[in-house]
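Appendix C reproduces, verbatim, an entry submitted by the partner laboratory led by Prof. M.T., so that reviewers can inspect both the input and the predicted structure.
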Amino acid sequence: MRNRPAHAEFLNVPFCLAKLEQVVRLVVEECEGPFAYVVTPNAQHVVAVQEQASLAAIYRAAYLSLCDSRIVRALAALDGLSLPLVTGSDLVPALLAHQNAATREAVRRRILIVGPEAEAARILHARYPNASIEVLPAPTGLAQRADLRLEVAAACIGRPWDILLLCVGFPAQEMIAASIGECGRGSGLALCAGASIDFVTGRRARAPVWLQRLGLEWAYRLAREPGRLWRRYLIESPKILRIFVKARRACH
């Protein structure tokens, strides 16, 4: 059993109190232990956890649950809780850079990235030539099809890796991570990393830093991909405000 780093509870979701540099170190050091996984809850995820008991259980069983939302962080601050912001979009390139710079065999890890097309492998190998990276494309429709999720989980179990980056979107990646453990994977650490690898490879562009600091990265992404993201940012994620107000009223 792993020793879980300190977490704090907010809106029925645990959030890790470690900062980015600490998280990178934990991932590299702990991937040799019994299988575990890392989730990166944002506002949409927090809302979904309130509505789906099965998803809430997956988040509670995670080794690390990292705050991936400036909105969530700001709301937590109103409750007097300081959450480090460790987004998947920051964690993944930091982890890959760490592995690319590793000079000791003891900290070199085998990384399997699930989700992107095969072309991503060429880009990643060129950018991180010293890192051990394998790319496994994944089918579409994973969120709707349990059989496909089990196929992906089985493919992951059958491959040699220390760190697994599941980049197939919420909630499929979280379900697959849980299935890998349930199906008997003995070791390794899986990260539910969303679109992070698309930012690394240049398939998608991140917002300018000044927009990120203003908490408006969501608006930038919505403007670039309105057809894909409008429901997430305009309907699902704003529900967190109602959940937060209700939780505060219940405490006072």
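The chain has one domain: 7-201. Additional entries are available on request from the coordinating office.
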